């Protein structure tokens, strides 16, 4: 059992895109905001695709913003409409003021209560400790090894999102 008294691992997606937990079903997939540095756009795109294959709906600025869009307004709308946030922590991301603002939004929003999933990409020892937001240093995180030739293994990320649902 998880800390909410439910068996989070028993949730699963059905062919129709809804997930089941006992008799409760969710007809729409969870909306996930993917926060990352634009330097990490190729990795973010691969993770977005893999999470969507797991049945989640992912908003990624590099994939969802179109030329001429008001990026600040569209990002704010996506933050408001999302159910969870995945933060890709890389050396570039921990230095990004935009990633920092997105994390601050999630920490202050009831929508994201226990649904902020930090994903440390690569070796966590390669990060300057003072650059990782202190609150994220105290959270359980998902480790992700990244190879440009392999599809990222996102099952632990999807499991963490569903366990928090």
Per DSSP E runs of 2 or more residues, the count of β-strands stands at: 8
State the secondary-structure class: alpha/beta
Strand arrangement across the biggest beta sheet:
5-4-6-7-8
Note the beta-strand portion: 15-25%
User: How many domain units?
Assistant: 1
Count, helices: 6
- What CATH first level would be assigned? Alpha Beta
Uncertain stretches of 5 or more adjacent residues: 1-15, 20-25
Account of the 3D structure:
By secondary structure, the protein is α/β, with parallel strands linked by helices. The chain has one domain: Rossmann fold. Helices cover 33% and strands 19% of the residues. The protein has helices at residues 41-53, 61-64, 71-81, 97-108, 134-137, 155-164, and strands at 12-13, 19-21, 24-26, 31-35, 57-59, 84-89, 116-121, 142-144. The chain has a 5-stranded parallel β-sheet, sandwiched between helices. Strands 1-2-3 form a 3-stranded antiparallel β-sheet, with no helix packed on it. A hairpin with a 5-residue loop joins strand 1 and strand 2 (19-21). The two termini are 14 Å apart.
Tags for this model:
disordered N terminus; 3-stranded antiparallel beta sheet; 6 helices; single chain; 5-stranded parallel beta sheet; alpha/beta; 165 residues; Rossmann fold
Short summary:
The protein has helices at residues 41-53, 61-64, 71-81, 97-108, 134-137, 155-164, and strands at residues 12-13, 19-21, 24-26, 31-35, 57-59, 84-89, 116-121, 142-144.
């Amino acid at each position: 059992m998880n800390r909410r008294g439910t068996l989070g691992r028993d949730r699963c997606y059905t062919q129709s895109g809804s997930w089941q937990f006992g008799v409760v079903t969710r007809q729409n997939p969870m909306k996930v905001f993917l926060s990352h540095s634009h330097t990490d756009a190729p990795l973010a795109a691969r993770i977005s695709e893999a999470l969507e294959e797991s049945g989640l709906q992912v908003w990624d600025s590099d994939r969802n913003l179109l030329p001429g869009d008001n990026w600040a307004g569209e990002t704010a709308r996506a933050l408001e409409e999302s159910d969870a946030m995945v933060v890709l922590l890389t050396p570039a991301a921990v230095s990004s003021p935009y990633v920092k603002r997105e994390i601050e939004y999630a920490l202050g929003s009831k929508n994201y209560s226990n649904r902020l999933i930090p994903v440390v990409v690569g070796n966590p020892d390669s990060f300057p400790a003072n650059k990782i937001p202190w609150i994220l240093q105290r959270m359980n995180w998902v480790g992700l090894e990244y190879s440009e030739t392999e599809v990222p293994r996102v099952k632990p990320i999807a499991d963490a999102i569903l366990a928090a649902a």
